[in-house]
Amino acid sequence: MIYIGADHRGYKLKEHLKKFLANESRAVTDLGAKKYDKKDDYLDPAKAVAQKVSKNAERDLGILICRSAQGVCIVANKFKNVRAALVWNTGEAKLSRNDDMSNVICLPSDYVSPRIAEHIVETWLETPYSEALRHVRRIKKVSDLERRSLQ
What we know:
single chain; Ribose 5-phosphate Isomerase B, Chain: A; five-stranded parallel sheet; alpha/beta
């Protein structure tokens, strides 16, 4: 499952990407914002998406959108098993999946067009995790650090 969420600044891009993903026959669940609300906070959809991905980080993925993507990325990375990456282009999308096993992508709505966002998301979804020993070793170190810091 792909979970998607955005605040008011990312709402329009979220709605666009939901349609794009549906047209690509991808299962997507919208965790908010459900309507445009200028007073909402990026924290709420980021928390909702990260909680879902955290529960089944091997299978589920997340897409978060806010003005700069900084806030949603910070929030998402507070959750166990979440590896959120702030991505601006397809090259970063590919590297974040291949090298770092990202399972949440964070998009800056003020800096990427809907068309570019489509390319970024598609690249990210189609890029497999690397089996290279150096990447596996690094992800294990990240997981070990996460486990120790949560004790």
